[in-house]
Amino acid sequence: MILRFLDYLKRKEVEFTENKRLSELSSVRIGGEGRLVVSPKCRGELITVLEYLDSHTFDYKVVGGCSNILFPDGKTDKIIVKTSGLADFSAKGAAVTAETGVSLSALSRSLARAGLSGLEELSGIPGTVGGATVGNAGAYGREICELIEVAELYDREACRVITLSQADLDFGYRTSILKSGRFVLLSVTLKAREHSSAACLMRIGEITEARRKAQPREPSLGSTFKRPPGGYASRMIDLCGLKGRACGGAKISEKHAGFIVNACGATAKDYLSLAALAQKEVLRKFGVLLELEIDVF
Fold this sequence. Notes:
Uridine Diphospho-n-acetylenolpyruvylglucosamine Reductase, domain 3, Uridine Diphospho-n-acetylenolpyruvylglucosamine Reductase, domain 1
């Protein structure tokens, strides 16, 4: 069946890579081999691929910039559909429409240069608009859901494109209706506001510097855990004396205990072992069970 799909992709001129090293895709540089990575270049190609995969009951996963995904160590036969090729965006007044694969960082800087404010606090978040929307990414007091007016989605059950309002997307802390897997994000319309370009760029510079001082430079997936009620995961992990604790090539960052970094040839097993240790010790000391913020493939 996979050979027929490959032939279909060739006929449709959709780019794909067989036996891809997944560590090359991941921001933490961890991962084994992916049997097939499909990379649509536009909305039409993405929908065509999704229709084929669903009609033939393939096991697949849609990903964006892979800045929050921990890939497995071994080989996976699950098909990966990478949407970073859908990277167009445009502004009409203060309304900004961005496709799912647009880099969040690049978008924030482009809007700032154009005198449109709203994304400055999110400018340092790696990954794509799609991934940020699915997980309702946030930083420095701002969440992306605050800016979203509507989203265009492909409904896998109905096999059609639909539009949902911000309220219909059921946003919560690091979650949305898109986590269900039924919908694949195509684009979002964001409501920015006109502001001084210089002021916007200055704010981005401040955010960039704050991140540089607070966060590790080694490869990571960002914050490993969600913020627990009434506290911070990084603070709790630090108070458990786990800063700098290593397992194989992975390490709890000495700079920011909320990050598990790839210090030297880390594996997914190393990473998850440290995450489990942090959960165990924080539960023992504080009675709080930390919840993973990363997406384990």
